[in-house]
Amino acid sequence: LPRVTFQGLVRFAQEYFAAKGVPEDRARTIAETAVTTEAFGITTHGLSFLPYAEGAIPEVVDPKAEPAVTGDRGATAVIDAGRGFAQLAMKVAADIAIRKASTLGIAMVSVRNAGWLAALGVQLLPIAERGMLAQVWAQTNTCKDCAPVGGIDARFSTNPLALAIPTGGDPIVADFSTTAISMGKTSAMAGRGEKAPERIFMDANGALSNDPKVAKEGGTILFTGGEHYGHKGYGLSLWCEALTAAGGGECNNPQSRTQQNFTLQAIDPAVLGGRDHYLAEIGRFVRHVRSSRPRPGVAAVRLPGERGFAALRRAKADGVDVPETMLAKLDELAAKTGIASARGR
Question: How is residue 179 annotated by DSSP?
Fold first, then answer.
């Protein structure tokens, strides 16, 4: 695969967002998030954010919008993103959550009226690096991705969530949809003509299928747990919608104007059981988890995010492998905005 330096990709993305009207420092924040996500190995939500932005500006996303804190009380805060980039609202939310949790032990920040947040987990790293546990729940109000258990018609987006757990080394980072698979991966599978190993999709008539194409033809994705145990993902997705309503956002409503809403929480163990106890105990537990015998054909037991951090370190040292198809899309964006190609940076 063609390879581009990590910082070269960041500069390209920053120049692109600046050319679309985003102030320079904020363009840098969005660029770093997109490239870090790509380097982490989440290619469905990394550089692909740039083509998304091209189609979303200005109808869905206002490039000049500034997130505004509309509520601030105790351990909680509310942010209206003003139809702006969700990554900028997330940065403000994380700063608030860190400040509040360091004093109160816990913080919850609700964000409404934002663009696509893309991958969630990498955006929790600033909190985890401060030694705090973090979680974020997100939904998009107009998506028709998933039907309730027992139903055919979609009433949910894929409603993803992410968890970050500090360990004293690399954090544990779990990032997943409440559906069996994300819409980004569903689209990628369909584009490659691949089938899922299980029947995790449902067509427009309610028949289960392993073909991701049915999800793009009026069908849906099953919840996490699939055909027999999807009630688990269903419950998590309902919780996500409830958090949205509690924070002043809009639950699923395909007739409305598209917005993404999310709820961020940070927990500081230093204010609870104490940082020293936490690090000692989580360290012992991580060793306990890793000591489990691997299944046949498995080299070692891994923790969520482990491969991502290894990939991120390689990318920063040696460059990011970018598929030719993505480079071609970036070339189109460069030509439209009058910036230099990402190639060779």
Answer: B
